[in-house]
Amino acid sequence: MPKTKKDPSYRPFQRTTRLEAFSDGVFAIAITLLVLEISVSPEAGQGLGEALLEAWPSYLAYATSFFTIGALWLAHSTVSEYLDRADPILLRINLVLLFGVGFLPFPTTLVAEFVDSEGDERIAVTLYGVLLMVLLLLTSVLWRYALTAGLVRDDISPAEVAELTKRLSPTLLLYVVAIILGLVFPVLAVVAYLSIAVLVLIPVATVYRVLRPKSSAPTGTSD
Amino acid sequence: MPKTKKDPSYRPFQRTTRLEAFSDGVFAIAITLLVLEISVSPEAGQGLGEALLEAWPSYLAYATSFFTIGALWLAHSTVSEYLDRADPILLRINLVLLFGVGFLPFPTTLVAEFVDSEGDERIAVTLYGVLLMVLLLLTSVLWRYALTAGLVRDDISPAEVAELTKRLSPTLLLYVVAIILGLVFPVLAVVAYLSIAVLVLIPVATVYRVLRPKSSAPTGTSD
Amino acid sequence: MPKTKKDPSYRPFQRTTRLEAFSDGVFAIAITLLVLEISVSPEAGQGLGEALLEAWPSYLAYATSFFTIGALWLAHSTVSEYLDRADPILLRINLVLLFGVGFLPFPTTLVAEFVDSEGDERIAVTLYGVLLMVLLLLTSVLWRYALTAGLVRDDISPAEVAELTKRLSPTLLLYVVAIILGLVFPVLAVVAYLSIAVLVLIPVATVYRVLRPKSSAPTGTSD
Amino acid sequence: MPKTKKDPSYRPFQRTTRLEAFSDGVFAIAITLLVLEISVSPEAGQGLGEALLEAWPSYLAYATSFFTIGALWLAHSTVSEYLDRADPILLRINLVLLFGVGFLPFPTTLVAEFVDSEGDERIAVTLYGVLLMVLLLLTSVLWRYALTAGLVRDDISPAEVAELTKRLSPTLLLYVVAIILGLVFPVLAVVAYLSIAVLVLIPVATVYRVLRPKSSAPTGTSD
């Protein structure tokens, strides 16, 4: 008897499970490793309080990378929830996305270390912003590829699809603006990156609130 | 055909799955990264035994953070077990909670390093205590939001709900007392934080023992 | 309608799932963090090859801790597979076990660093052996508690239960012998710890081979 | 009543689940820890830009190890998807594979550090290449053992089995060539290792594209 979609051992679903487990692992580890970048060692004659205040770029970089990875994870889990199955190319696009997510702690450290050092600040902040932008772009590519390849569940309405597509796109422009801003005011650019992550976190919420009632409507008030 | 709760691909359940996987990842990584904070390098003329004894603040801070994260994880998994589904706001409250959990290794290191250094000890211990308290508060907020938003499974009795609500609250007062104590006796405050974590770990057990028979009663002795 | 075992949202199973996810996370992270302990920096005038050879205690300690955690994980996953459900006390015994597993990278580093330094070697090796023994003991306690509390699945035959109980116990004596040996020959003791881990890994295999046919017999050749 | 395959608590499936969770954890952590190897500290009078460019061996080693682990993970998840169940020997082969995966960050650091230092480069690059080759070999052993032991799902056609077997093998020869190349041109060998990983990533895709239509044909357009 051939396996069917209803069968829990049916291949494509299995595959999505493993894709999600591995991705969740990389997202969770990258987001938690960020803390290793923060370290405070008071210089001679300096109190801990003062040293903690001086370490503000570490906190800013930590928060920015944390909420960006958080926003990427939310987008990723929304996309993967809309997926019926994965295919080989999707798995590879996902691997490239994880490559960037796993790399993020490095430019985060650069920003924390160099954001207040004359001259080097521009390089650190620009590299960081470009990576953040590329990560968001890759999440968008992941979704658009899934659409093109017909991997999306067919119980997702065109309105839902259009909504998610729209939500994943416009922030790219915001990154371009923030990166250019960073050439003049590096610290402000990092604040802008953090704001973008927070902004991304808010509208995705709206997508859900709009979609939930529609999809649960047919099951009535059973819940 | 509309998806139903019985269907494994039904959305809300899927979502809780992914929320749990990501949260478990962050909790597990943060709790395991704590060990990197412990390091012992005997000074010239000092034996390893002596150096190991001198490193007691590291062990105290490790145990305190480990059991606090353990208690938070237990509370978190209890809450998520009572959930029927997640919603966008819950996911974001959860992200803020994970932000704090992921950050915890940093103040843990501060306490280990500065708890026996005159003057700086108060800052380290107070910051640490405030973060621990905020983490417990956020777990409580997560639960109360789930209640307000109607995300809790409808087969959970009002008594069970009230019990969990009660259990998640009172420790906040204990933290306030311990933090104030820390302004005078920093080391004692850390011992108090550890005791609170252990205290939290015990009563949650009671909740379960009280609830289990009730909920499994209808299925009889089938198991 | 009361939830039943067939229902995926039935509580006890859900709970074991989360216990396993969190434990797998801690085991996987602890086993992978071990590698951070290995570092080789050739001194002036020394080639990389020579420096790599001199670092043998790091490899020995890495292999010993890796295969011990591996053996603990196998034992843990066997125990959890025999479980019908978890209870609050089991979750806490498990947390204490994970406390030890998460701490293991620290004594591993001590052994790697001090195993060839006169005098300190005994302290490092003894502490390490005691922790390894305690971890195995805790795994055994976890299983015995599950038995006492009636948490084991009722389709597991008494013979299977007796077999697993027997397999989890005798190695404790081997650890006592190895720890005493370590007071005289520290390096040999570490080799003995590694051998015990490998020994534990082999017999557990036998348990499975004995049990598999029995339990799959009733389903015939359906697969 | 005996447990059947349809029952979620049926043993063999449960076991594969846990094997996958632990393996996904180790793969995900090893791949994410790699980033800790990259660190840039400009020397006196050197700008950040220059220091970043000089750190190219770190990026090369990071990318090589990342995509090799990625390729191993893809192969591993393909193998595990074809598995009906695990057995004790398979679990141990898997543990040895994970031993190597967890160890990989160490030779990666060696390559990053010594690839441009006269004399030591050959040792670092050769050790690295040998480990990469052994890891691929172990993945192949895992699959061949599963075949021999009859652990593969019986709905996988002989053509699919032959295809996967073929895909997992030939790259070994490529590693031998690259390792020998490394004795003369160390940097080129690392580039070759990276190319092999990318090559491995591409054909596995083809396996899937070939197999998918066949296996999903019987379910028609039901979804």
What does this protein structure show overall?
The structure is a homotetramer of 223-residue chains. Chain A is mostly helical. Chain A has nine helices and no strands. In chain A, helix 1 (11-33) packs parallel to helix 4. Chain A is elongated. The two termini of chain A are 34 Å apart. Chains in contact: A-B, A-D, B-C, C-D. Chains A and B meet through helix 1, helix 2, helix 3 and helix 9 of A and helix 1, helix 4, helix 5 and helix 6 of B.
Describe this structure in a few short sentences.
4 copies of one chain form a homotetramer. The first copy, chain A, has 223 residues and is mainly alpha-helical.
Q: Which chain pair shows the most residues in contact?
A: A-B, 49 and 45 residues
Query: Class by helix and strand content of chain A?
Result: mainly alpha
Largest sheet: number of strands, sense, barrel closure of chain A: none
What is the straight-line distance between the termini of chain A?
A: 34 Å
- Residue share in β-strands of chain A: under 5%
Helix content of chain A: over 70%
Mean pLDDT of chain A: 81
Low-pLDDT windows of residues of chain A? 1-14, 205-223
Put simply, the count of helices of chain A is: 9
- Based on CA atoms alone, the radius of gyration of chain A comes out at 20 Å
| Large-scale geometry of chain A | elongated
H/E series of chain A:
HHHHHHHHH
User: What's the assembly state of these chains?
Assistant: homotetramer
Secondary structure tally: strands of chain A: 0
